[in-house]
Amino acid sequence: MKVFLTGGTGFVGSEVLRQLVVAGHTVRCLVRPGSEKKLAVHQGVQIHPGDATEPDTLEEALDGCDAVIHLVGIIREFPGRGITFEKLHFEATRNVAAEAEIQRVKRFVHMSANGTREKAVSSYHRTKWRAEETVRKSSLSWTIFRPSLIFGPGDAFVNMLADMMRKLPVMPVIGDGRYRMSPVAVEDVAASFVRSLALPETIGRTFHCCGPVSYSYNEVLDLIGEALGKNRVSKVHQPVGLMKPVVSLLENFSAFPLTTSQMTMLLEGNECDPKEWAEVFGIAPKSFPQGIRSYLKP
């Protein structure tokens, strides 16, 4: 199958690209000019220079393709640089889906996020919802995936916490740290994207992708500490009411590790039941503690 892939230079996209090639698919990657070297695989991979937020660059991009895997997304906005959820989640999806319809590429596999819903508090989830709605209302044969926190070599969240743990004597925790998440391995998420191409029964369905166990944020910190060889992770719990104005004040500085939207989603929790997803795609979700020990070093 010939697959048009967006977001192929990203964390999840790199693994999806690797698995597509291993599975024998031909891949055409949408890549912004100058980012070609970021692709994890080059042999046999076609490159189409362009940007999902610029419709003109998508003309004829999907010619001859059998399917689209759309992964473009961000976890943090930088409005001054034109990097917004509205642009990268909603507009990019609208553009790629519209071009798929024009070029008659029916199969469309879309990356969303667990927690996405119409009346979500965070703009991240609201724009993800609008992107999903665009896909659902199209004429495409779509499948939507909603992963929880994704971990693996090169991830942002776990590696950021590990780096903080190496440098700080205590770990700051917003609130009581009891909010929960179900971390899922990047290779498992990527496998479901690739396998969906050969499973017509997944068309018109939305799947939540989660790991086999749910952990509190406190437990996640302890597990990362164990992977780093620490006997104990000292934590300082900060009241939510105190942290909100601090985060709001500092979130525009790129060096500050947290935004208001991210804090809202963190406190909201990120759990789901992986049973349906795991059964349909034949996946045995990987263990979070075992997974992070394979790539975190003291």
Task: Give the topology, please.
Elements: E1 2-6, H1 11-22, E2 26-31, E3 45-49, E4 67-70, H2 85-102, E5 107-111, H3 123-136, E6 141-147, E7 150-151, H4 157-167, E8 171-174, E9 180-181, E10 184-185, H5 186-196, E11 205-209, E12 215-216, H6 217-227, E13 235-238, H7 240-250, H8 260-268, H9 275-281, H10 288-293
Parallel strand pairs: 1-2, 1-4, 2-3, 4-5, 5-6, 6-11, 7-10, 8-13
Antiparallel strand pairs: 9-12
Helix pairs in contact: 1-5, 2-3
Describe this structure in words.
The chain is α/β, with parallel strands linked by helices and 298 residues long. The protein has a domain at 2-153 and 184-212 and 271-286: NAD(P)-binding Rossmann-like Domain (Rossmann fold, 3-Layer(aba) Sandwich), CATH 3.40.50. 37% of the residues lie in helices and 18% in strands. The protein has helices at residues 11-22, 85-102, 123-136, 157-167, 186-196, 217-227, 240-250, 260-268, 275-281, 288-293; strands spanning 2-6, 26-31, 45-49, 67-70, 107-111, 141-147, 150-151, 171-174, 180-181, 184-185, 205-209, 215-216, 235-238. The strands form four sheets. The protein has a seven-stranded parallel beta sheet, sandwiched between helices. A two-stranded parallel sheet has the order 7-10. The chain has a two-stranded parallel sheet with strand order 8-13. Strand 4, helix 2 and strand 5 (107-111) form a beta-alpha-beta unit. Helix 1 (11-22) packs across helix 5 (186-196) and helix 2 (85-102) packs parallel to helix 3. The longest helix is centred in the N-terminal third of the chain and has 18 residues, at 85-102. It is globular, with a radius of gyration of 19 Å. The N and C termini lie far apart (42 Å). The relative contact order is 0.13. The model has no long low-confidence stretch (mean pLDDT 96).
